[in-house]
């Protein structure tokens, strides 16, 4: 077994004052990030989505296997197919009688229901698939490690990158999501994790009033 090929780290150090400024500026920018459900149909250049996806693709992953695929959709017909299939699953979720009452109660303040017009309206849908396994040159399966964790980190990178670029996002998770494999033409080794909606928020967009937890509620210092 040979060792890894190494090259110098591209790291640019800065003073503590600059570090604190960067940390606070980034925190302030991300504090303005909100999940939205009302989008404009205003086009977003593909290059912006490409840069955000490549930022996400640079996320750390188990054994550096990069077990993800980002399916980026702007085609109106494909978005329409996704909306029809997603709303069918959502009707069963909200009104099929199988969802626990406490789950529906928790969603109540957010104002969500089975209607998903944003899937048609927003200029971009990005489906993030996790690869359960990969393939060797001889076609045999290669086990992937920590796939959910790796894909989750990449999704965080993607949401932050899109927000940094000036776009709004919505993480949509219809359940089950197997229809996305069929519509997007993805193989059986891939599992859809999130259907990310991206674009400009509607001019009259409103979001629920929520309270974020404080530092002492989310952290322990030892």
Which key terms come to mind for this protein?
single chain, alpha+beta, NADH Oxidase, four-stranded antiparallel beta sheet, two-stranded antiparallel ribbon, 8 helices
Order of helices and strands: HHEHHHEEEHEHEH
Q: How is the main sheet built? A: 4 strands, antiparallel
**Portion in beta strands:** 15-25%
CATH topology, by name, is NADH Oxidase
User: What order do the strands of the largest sheet run in, or round the barrel if closed?
Assistant: 1-2-6-5
Under CATH, the homologous superfamily reads NADH Oxidase
Helix content: 25-40%
Shape: globular
Helix and strand composition category: alpha+beta
Radius of gyration: 20 Å
Mean pLDDT: 93
Strand count = 6
End-to-end distance: 39 Å
Low-confidence stretches: none
How many structural domains?
A: 1
Tally of individual helices = 8
Would you state the CATH class? Alpha Beta
CATH architecture identity: 3-Layer(aba) Sandwich
How does this structure look, described?
Helices cover 39% and strands 16% of the residues. By secondary structure, it is of the alpha+beta class. It has one domain (37-204): NADH Oxidase, CATH 3.40.109. The strands form two sheets. It has a four-stranded antiparallel beta sheet. It has a two-stranded antiparallel ribbon with strand order 3-4. The radius of gyration is 20 Å and the shape is globular.
